[in-house]
Amino acid sequence: MRSGKKIQEIRRTLLEKQWEESFMTKLESMKESWYDIGYNAEEIGYLEEAAAIFFAKNKETYREDKKEAKQLMKKAKDSLASRK
C-alpha cells in the first residue's frame, strides 16, 4: 500500500510540474501579446494575476475567483483605455 501512495505522489508531482511549465509558456506568450496591444507593466501585472486565477481552478472558490479575475481584467482594460 505504501508503494502505491509513493507512486501516486510521484505522478502528482510530475503532473504539477508539467502544468506549471505549460502555464509559464502560455503566460509568456500572452505577455508578448499584451505588450503588442499596448498594455504597460502595471496593467500586465493585473492580467497575469487574472490568468493565474483562471488557470488554477478551485471548486470551492470558483465563482469568487472568476469574479476577481474579471475585475482585474476590467481594471487593466480601463487603464489602457484611459491612456489612449
Short description:
By secondary structure, this protein is mainly α. Helices cover 87% and strands 0% of the residues.
Spatial gap, N to C terminus: 62 Å
What is the domain tally?
A: 1
Beta strand count? 0
Structural class: mainly alpha
> What is the molecular shape?
elongated
Given as residue ranges, the uncertain stretches (5+ residues, pLDDT < 50) are: none
Please state roughly what percent of the residues sit in beta strands, choosing from under 5%, 5-15%, 15-25%, 25-35%, 35-45% or over 45%. under 5%
Integer average pLDDT: 91
Total helices: the number is: 3
Q: Main β-sheet, in a few words?
A: none
- SSE order, as H and E? HHH
Helix fraction by DSSP (H/I, runs of at least 4):
over 70%
Q: Nearest-angstrom radius of gyration?
A: 17 Å
Description:
With 84 residues, the protein is mostly helical. It has one domain. Helix content is 87%, strand content 0%.
What keyword list fits this structure?
87% helix, 0% strand, elongated, mainly alpha, 84 residues, single chain
Helices and strands in order, then pairings?
Layout: H1 2-37, H2 41-55, H3 62-83
Helix pairs in contact: 1-2, 2-3
